[in-house]
Amino acid sequence: MMLAGIVSMPEARAAALATLDHSASAAGVANAFVATADDPSAVHYNPAGIAWQPGIGVMFTGVLRAEDQSVQLAPPGGTPFNRQTPANPGSIYATWMPRDGDWGMGAGFDLPFSGNTGWGTDFGGAAQRTSLNTFHFSLDAVYAISSSMAVAFGPDWYGGRIDVDSATTTFRGTGLTAVGGHAAWMWHPRPTWSVGAMFRSGATLNLSGDAIGAITGTAETSVSLPGVVQFGIAHDFYDRYKLEFNGSWTRWSTLTDLNVVGKGIAGAELNPLNLQDSFSAMVGLTWFWQEHTQFRFGYAFDQAATKDTGFNARITDANSHRLSLGMGTEVFGLHLDAAYSFIYSPTRTITGSAPFDGRYKHRLQTLAVSIARYF
After folding, report:
1. Residue 359: which of 144, 17, 74 has the closest Cα?
2. How far is 334 from 84, CA to CA, in rounded Å?
3. Which of 143, 228, 331, 339 makes an SS bond possible with 326, Cβ 3.0 to 4.6 Å?
């Protein structure tokens, strides 16, 4: 009972409901950006990187996405397609670091979790439509410990809307209740090396609204947003190339269900989930072709958060492989970045999780464009 998109960066869906590609510069290197974080999207990837961005920076990102998702059911079930289309989201980040100061700031508005599925009457109407739109606002305080090391920390606020349709119940809920926090670190042990780490806590988003059907009246659900840990190491070589390796871990096991429960009335729409913690591995290469022009290439593997046992078609992620390429340059005082990603998931066969048994296929293409200005 969740998934969909609203405002933020591209939702290249990997594990469960995570959205990725929060800037075109990061998308070009398959999001291997934690130890680089050298533009305003550092607010998302590693705000400690703001310490090496003197002055004021602002970045806007927009994304176009095309998705193809289907399931081949056992005969005579046919091959239904996901009827919901992914959102085309956007994000905004701003940074400030005094040129001779030790303290700086960052702020951002984006979409960390979203997705959408719509299977209609397939699966007996057990997952007719699921839509979760989340938004996220963050603030950062950045402290430069020395010329080679910095830390950052701050709060996170989450809100969102959820729509859940089944053969028996329709629910629409909203909420602005989730609060979390984050901390980040970056270190340049040598001029050509950098190391970065980012931790973002989990939070519980409570959503309430009206239900019609088996539950009629005011109802509510809660979404346990997962904590995330990321680590990266980057190396510059030959004065023209940067290679970065990243790893991340997401605690999806805290999201045990998406049950809709009546408030003060009897009844519940049960949507049990069986999720596991997942990891991702990313590698990215940046080629500094000219002083203000870069080309980027990346690969990432994202592990599925859903298990075969207890699989629920409201969340249909799978192990996925991502290939990315991008380019950045300066035009009329603006820094422009563009990136294309192709995400491929091998066919996944689900058995023993009726009514959702079948062979699931998923492909996703994203085109991200970012515009940044520095003052």
Report:
1. 74
2. 35
3. 339
